[in-house]
């Protein structure tokens, strides 16, 4: 294992220390228990929006903390759910009297711990509501999940719910928007290489010389199939068709498209795949209204990519366009 | 070789097509000859600022085209200089009557081709001036370079010269600022893994299981030494001390710091190294006035990082803070 770390046991904490130093203008990091929080939290009268999950998916979620997106994020150990005490402390830290929304990716540990945290907070008199993201079309049930896994749509839900909370919408309305994003968002990913969890020291799976895993999860969970690496054109068509057929997306549907890198794939390849994606959508008469290309929800140094499409009406597009100022997404400010 | 491409011969062109589709609000890509140009170029009365170099270093340079930074960028084939006709066409496209500045990294091919392009443009009546960036402290002379290589400081020079041109400074003053940035900027990089040029299909060098290359160039050119991977704390100290001793940077000097990923290293590790860097600078009483952490000047999927420090006075900091709107750097707009 070759990684730029000191002791694997300290990697998450030391990375967060560097993250805090780099973005002190936007956020701060609390270390006992561990959570990332907007520098100006809590904001009186605003619904707090928080998320969390295992580390190793950076910039998600800490990189989305800031004005117009998340109020706080709870990072667990690498690929491991954060604990209820982290979520409870983060929820208390961002409650401005209007309650808090938990955006939770559908992994059994995350769901269980966020539910426990919600109960603890409700006992303290903080109103908490949860939105579950389960957008991965690749497989039903998985290594850490009953039902579908939560992946790329989480990023879009965090942006849109954050914007809604920033406009002063009440908790019910922000939660309804989160559910709307999840209902209209679909994703699928693939990997060229595995990644190594620092504490494990070796890859969690192995791929052959010319083999890919189609439909992989963000922790390396098995996908639909292993196959020889096809040209980018076929690969993109394969993923896009699976996504389009699932909702289904129809001619005339406008979408927010995210072409996401898994961490180890260079931007040159991501843009090439994005070009293929736009070509396919254009041929299907599905206009791309907004887009993101880059590393947003990653799996450490895994090479590969994922595609997320969100069918977006005027309401979602308008919230998407609201200003945002976080380490990883920034516009209009 | 596992890459998300179709035919290696088309990879640069197809990637640029996706890049153009993703960022049509900011820029457009011309394909014959190939260059990336601001959507609103030329801007009457403003000095044009352009750069260029081999592809495979994305987001540099195309990702820095836009308001407040570059007017155009010329991408060559992977790790190969662009040609004079590309540079000539880009220079003509951005000349708004106040002349054009070429920001050139110190590689023999780049220097030669930019010089030839400058002569062609001058023959057409366009005033052209060049700034050479040669900030890499690792080695004197190299595989493609006489003298020092041009690396991370290029990003900072493009931001600061772009801001100066945006303020309406004349060509001489913008060029002088570029030289000032180069005179005060120093960098050093290291690699954990090699990368594969698509047309070659195999790594250009090999590293042992636990071995790193300290002082590597952005095309995999040899550095100072190969050594066993040290903990991140020692590794960061090694690179930082080499940089600090070179200028030299002294207690009280304020710096713009860039902790740059080579492409294949996850953000989690980059932030960890950034934390170590800030700790070292703090102990040396060198305040970090501004910072960038992420992938800015990469080597395809190479794992590793580089550190750039720029001694910055009020003038440079003020230009740094000017608004910028490009695919890869964005603030204040």
Itemize the secondary structure elements and their pairings:
2 copies of one chain form a homodimer.
Chain A: H1 11-22, E1 27-31, E2 34-38, E3 48-55, E4 72-78, H2 84-94, E5 100-105, H3 108-123, E6 128-133, H4 153-166, H5 171-184, E7 185-191, E8 211-214, E9 225-228, H6 232-246, E10 255-261, H7 267-283, E11 288-294, E12 304-311, H8 314-321, E13 324-325, E14 330-331
Parallel strand pairs in A: 3-4, 3-5, 5-6, 10-11
Antiparallel strand pairs in A: 1-2, 2-4, 7-8, 7-12, 8-9, 10-12, 13-14
How would you summarize what this structure contains?
The structure is a homodimer of 333-residue chains. Chain A is α/β, with parallel strands linked by helices and 333 residues long. Chain A has helices at residues 11-22, 84-94, 108-123, 153-166, 171-184, 232-246, 267-283, 314-321, and strands at 27-31, 34-38, 48-55, 72-78, 100-105, 128-133, 185-191, 211-214, 225-228, 255-261, 288-294, 304-311, 324-325, 330-331.
């Amino acid at each position: 294992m070759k990684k730029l770390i000191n002791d694997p046991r300290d990697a998450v904490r030391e990375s967060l220390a560097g993250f805090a130093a780099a973005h002190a203008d936007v956020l701060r990091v609390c270390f006992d228990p561990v959570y990332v929080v907007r520098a100006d939290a809590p904001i009186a009268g605003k619904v707090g929006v928080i998320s969390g999950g295992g580390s190793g998916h950076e910039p998600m979620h800490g990189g989305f903390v800031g004005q117009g997106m998340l109020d706080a994020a709870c990072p667990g150990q690498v690929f491991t759910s954060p604990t209820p005490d982290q979520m409870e402390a983060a929820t208390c830290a961002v409650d401005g009297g209007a309650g808090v929304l938990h955006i939770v990716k559908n992994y059994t540990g995350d769901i269980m711990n966020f539910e426990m945290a919600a109960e603890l907070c409700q006992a303290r008199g903080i109103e908490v509501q949860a939105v579950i993201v389960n957008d991965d079309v690749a497989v039903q049930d998985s290594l850490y999940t009953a039902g579908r896994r939560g992946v790329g749509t989480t990023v879009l839900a965090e942006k849109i719910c954050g914007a809604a909370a920033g406009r002063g919408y009440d908790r019910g309305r922000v939660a309804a928007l989160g559910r709307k994003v999840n209902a209209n968002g679909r994703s699928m990913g693939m990997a060229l290489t595995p990644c190594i969890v620092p504490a494990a020291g070796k890859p969690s799976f192995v791929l052959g010389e010319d083999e890919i895993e189609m439909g992989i999860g963000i922790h390396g969970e098995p996908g639909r199939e292993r196959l020889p690496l096809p040209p980018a054109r076929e690969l993109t068509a394969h993923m896009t068709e699976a996504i389009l057929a699932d909702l289904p997306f129809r001619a005339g549907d406008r979408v927010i498209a995210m072409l996401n890198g898994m961490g180890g794939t260079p931007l040159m390849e991501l843009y090439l795949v994005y070009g293929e994606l736009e070509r396919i959508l254009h041929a299907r008469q599905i206009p791309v209204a907004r887009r993101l290309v880059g590393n947003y929800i990653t799996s450490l140094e895994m090479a590969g990519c994922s595609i997320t499409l969100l069918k977006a009406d005027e309401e979602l597009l308008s919230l998407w366009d609201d200003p945002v100022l976080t380490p990883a997404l920034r516009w209009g400010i």
